[in-house]
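Page 47, continued from p. 46.
Same chain as before, 249 aa.
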Amino acid sequence: MDTQRLRGKICVITGAASGIGRACAIRYAAEGARVVLADIDHAGGESAVNEITAAGGQAVFQPTDVSEPAQLEALLGRALATYGDVHVWHNNAFKSVFKTIIDQTLQEFDDTVRISLRAYWYGSKIAVMHMVNHNGGVILNTASVQSYFGEPGFSAYQVAKGGILSLTRSIGVDHAPKVRAVAIAPGFIHTPAHQGIPAETIERVKASIPAQRGAQPEEVAALAAFLASDEADYITGTGVIIDGGYLGI
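Result:
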């Protein structure tokens, strides 16, 4: 039996140079997918591709600023030109400021929403347009436990992550059965994205997790690989939480 659940799939993932995105790209390739990695971090993206190819996988890097629609179109074009199709489009790149609504500026809010929500909408739009006219596919969106509840000091981030969950639902409803859409909602994950979050906030969150630890990006990647696969064919229009029980408190 073939143990590579993504064999024959072409996967595109944004924000793939580090953290959850990098772990997902590596896992997709290990599961047999051909992967197109996108990020503004050229060195990190190329490093991830080198890691994948050194392990025998297939991957290319496309420098991409997801806030620019033309660059998302170029990303889709690179995938089609290189591998001929797209079966999985994973919106993962994000930006945020960790401030209350009083402290954040309009520019900070706009930057967060442009990268962490509008880019998901546009990436999904162009990917779904391709998928419905070809072989179908899956949209994966990296959301957050903060898509479901409020955490102090994350105003703009919560707007974006809540919007991602709603976007996922709408795609799942509008384009089934040919296209599935699933949001992955991580809790506390050990990634470089924690830089800038107040240390007391991090310690408070970690102390309240029933699993008594944060997760590694590879644990999110394992979930993403399953959701991207045909084994998850009945999962669409919803979010899947991976948080060590945090939302149960």
